[in-house]
Design a protein that fits this description.
GO molecular function: catalytic activity
CATH topology of the largest domain: Amidase signature (AS) enzymes
Number of helices: 19
CATH architecture of the largest domain: Alpha-Beta Complex
Protein name: Putative amidase
Structural class: alpha+beta
Strand order of the largest sheet: 1-3-2-4-6-5-10-11-9-7-8
InterPro entries: AH_C, Allophanate_hydrolase, Amidase, Amidase_dom, AS_sf
Number of domains: 2
Largest sheet: 11 strands, mixed
Helix content: 25-40%
Shape: globular
Pfam families: AH_C, Amidase
Strand content: 15-25%
Amino acid sequence: MTAVERVRATYAAIEAANRPEIWIFLRPLTDALADATAVDAAVAAGDDLPLAGTTVAVKNNVDVAGLPTTAGCPTYASAPAAADAPVVARLRQAGAVVIGATNLDQFATGLVGTRSPHGAVRDSRRPDRISGGSSSGSAVAVSLRLVDVAIGTDTAGSGRVPAALQGIVGIKPTLGVVPTEGVVPACRSYDCVTVFARDLDTADVVMGVMAGGPGTRPFPPDAPLSAPQTPVVAVPRELPGLSGSWRAAFGEAKDRLVKAGATLREIDLTPFLEAARLLYDGGLVAERHEAVGEFVDAHRAEVDPIVGSIVAAAGSVPATALLRDRVRLRDLTAVALAELGDCDALLVPTTTEHPTIAEVADDPIVVNSRFGTYTNFCNLMDMCAVAVPAGTAGDDQFGVTVVARSGADAVALDVARLLTGSGDTTRAPWPTRAGLSATPLMVVGAHLRGQPLAWQLTDRGARWLGPARTAPLYRFARLDTTPPKPGLMRVGAEDGTSIGGELWLVGTAMLGEFLAALPAPMALGRVTLADGTEVVGFGCALDAWRDGADISQFGDWPSYLRYAEAAPSRA
């Protein structure tokens, strides 16, 4: 479909759905069609637009040029935003078409999706149930297939809880790697922009478009580009707050992860849960007042009563309490990360239940607090997370979240792919499109997957991209080394042949470390692939290659090894 066709289909679907509470503002169809027409023209002219024609909804605490950014409070902003937030501008530049601004828990204060003057956003399947929040409209718009993707924000779980309840994907990145300029803050130290999609690959592409750039936090140069083939995943020893059917659903998710190749290790979640309680039960809540307290104090009659009470109370938190709890958070984070140990990721239920709108109205504070049991700690501890669907618990959608350390966003994404059995594991992960420097590396021998030195790549977080072949310019020799290794030598088209190997993606910083540890006679240099591209690849010293046995006729190292095993006297 063209972008114009997709936009027309989107507006038709919105009208047919008859869910007005999802939207605070819909852009006029004529404006969206004008944007779509420009996208189609750019594609026809040969422009590379990774999101060409993708329809996007944006949470209304993120600036969209021409729409007021109300954060769910109509009097907070009556004038339209003069410019897009950087994340929105980047989506448009990549070919996406913004459809409108979505409803939310006012000032992004809540995990339930009911704290809005525009009405509670209802669950996509059961209208008597809540949607989850605070990114409520965004999640339901994606779940109902009204848009392809949606932008949310996340401080306590707003990019994950509604994803779980709506049966979709939510990516919450490491703090600071996606710009928050043009976003109404909730707790400035812990806010981040998130993406909702119906599949991991789409969310991955969108996150790569939004992340990085001026003013953002760079990924550490040693950030992993991949989870191990058989990751070690921590799981909670105890599951407070989960009913029997939800516990069973979590057990089934664990079983699927084990069958997919992961090793599970039980840990004590206590320090994580204690940290989670600091967000609202301690001094850290003072940041809520710093963000919007001046407006709330002056306009209490226009603010949701629950939101107003939370923000107003935050204004009376003494500075000593804020400082004390920041120290406490630092200490709990150290204990939690020590408990995580050498595990690659942590798997938790995303939330604890799926109540009705009426049940939330009867006990709004307590229900909302339970919702953050397994989400609140994540941003406080500067971790990243990917929320994915994990079946059902009775009649409820059930979701789990893969949590990883700061900067290990690619690991969280890979473990989520392993769990769901979906997504392209050979594509470069979104952090490499957001400033994390990485280099393709061609390997032809002992560093191939399944060979004795592959660990030197996997331990450095390298990512396997798939099989590859050189151009027919090389000869191949078995070198006299321990363990046995081949040597690749460029000889030119007249005497050369194509040699098979694998392409890996290695962090540039890790590549330097790898090179420093490389023993003689091995070396790294430029290798020409069969498609003509040049990458870094393994070679060897000329004298070692000359002293080796030519094995070019086998075409690749595993074929030679099979021959040698079958006929050792001839090898």
